[in-house]
Write a structure and sequence with these properties.
transport; alpha/beta; binds zinc ion; Metallo-B-lactamas; seven-stranded mixed sheet; binds manganese (II) ion; PQQ_synth_PqqB; PQQ biosynthesis; RibonucZ/Hydroxyglut_hydro; about 300 residues; Metallo-beta-lactamase, Chain A; globular; six-stranded mixed sheet; binds D-malate
Length: about 300
């Protein structure tokens, strides 16, 4: 299985357009040893090099496709290597890119949970809008954990992991299972697994067990500390309020308990997080725990 990191930043990207925090200001002025990153999205494929599944559709999708020509096989005047779309939630940073994919020549096979579908047809009715363009062929992700396969990549199987989380701020719904999911993706040829969870409020023993049976975990790297935004004075929200387990609030400890051979990669990194600076002490600490930090264009082969 091939995994391409299209965008490794959290909502807002890095630098964020209106942010002058030390990270955003520093990378904008090219004073920091840090790479800009676009908003959260990955693409996964099995043996067929032309059949990718887009996991989350970032507002930066057009720039991401331009930067990743592997996703454009060029077989016809109108073509794409994206065969399917899978969503882990209905957040703005994971869904707005769907608007940019409206020129597709056929309805998008779009996999999401009932609660994400609800948000995307009511409070943020992007799927209704798309009906007037390419159309959407909605496929239901069962939060009870039934395995599913996406068309064109039958050598991969997928399973949703219901995670603790919340509906997006724009949605007035009461929280329910399926608001936020992680994904287990297994390559049936090699039996190697990826555990992808860009938003995790906390880790429990059942999630940890799934992480432990994966060869790579690609998990929530949003915040270094729970009070990161509060301390910078840019928000009153703590990481936990936003559904994110910070690195110092427990993520590093959980990752330490994984088998030594498991690849640990943080993704969905907020622009305020000091780990974005390659020569920061926080980054050095991660390295000493064998934890990697995802970047745009990173490829993981499992
Ligand atoms: C999140 O992951 O917490 C959200 O995407 C934040 C946002 O709306 O940008
Ligand atoms: Mn997000
Ligand atoms: Zn910033």
């Amino acid at each position: 299985m091939h995994i391409r990191i299209l965008g490794a930043a959290a909502g807002g990207g890095f630098p964020q357009w209106n942010c002058n925090c030390p990270n955003c200001g520093g990378v904008r002025r090219e004073e920091l040893n840090a790479r800009p990153r676009t908003q959260s999205s990955i693409a996964i494929r099995g043996a067929d090099e032309t059949a990718w599944t887009l996991v989350n559709a970032s507002p930066d999708i057009l720039a991401q496709l331009h930067a990743n020509p592997q996703l454009q096989p060029g077989r016809a005047y109108r073509d794409t290597g994206i065969r399917n779309i899978v969503l882990t939630d209905s957040q703005i940073d994971h869904t707005t890119g769907l608007y940019m994919l409206r020129e597709a020549t056929k309805p998008w096979p779009l996999w999401c949970t009932d609660s994400a579908f609800d948000d995307l047809t009511t409070a943020n009715p992007i799927l209704q809008v798309l009906r007037r363009y390419c159309g959407v062929d909605r496929r239901r992700i069962d939060v009870a954990g039934e395995w599913f396969a996406v068309e064109g990549s039958e050598d991969l199987r997928w399973q949703a992991i219901a995670l603790p989380g919340k509906p997006p701020p724009y949605s007035a719904r009461t929280p329910q299972p399926g608001d936020v999911i992680g994904l287990l993706v297994e390559d049936l040829r090699t039996e190697r697994r990826l555990c992808y969870a860009p938003g995790v409020a906390h880790i429990d023993s059942s999630l940890f067990e799934l992480m432990s049976t994966s060869q790579c975990v690609l998990v929530d790297g949003t915040f270094w500390t729970d009070d990161e935004l509060v301390r910078l004075g840019v928000s009153h929200k703590r990481a936990a309020d936003m559904g994110h387990l910070s690195q110092t609030g427990g993520m590093i400890k959980w990752l330490d308990r994984l088998p030594a051979t498991t690849r640990r990669v943080l993704i969905h990194i907020n622009n305020t997080n000091p780990i974005l600076v390659e020569d920061s002490p926080e980054r050095a600490l991660l390295s000493s725990h064998s934890i990697e930090v995802a970047y745009d264009g990173m490829e993981i082969v499992l």
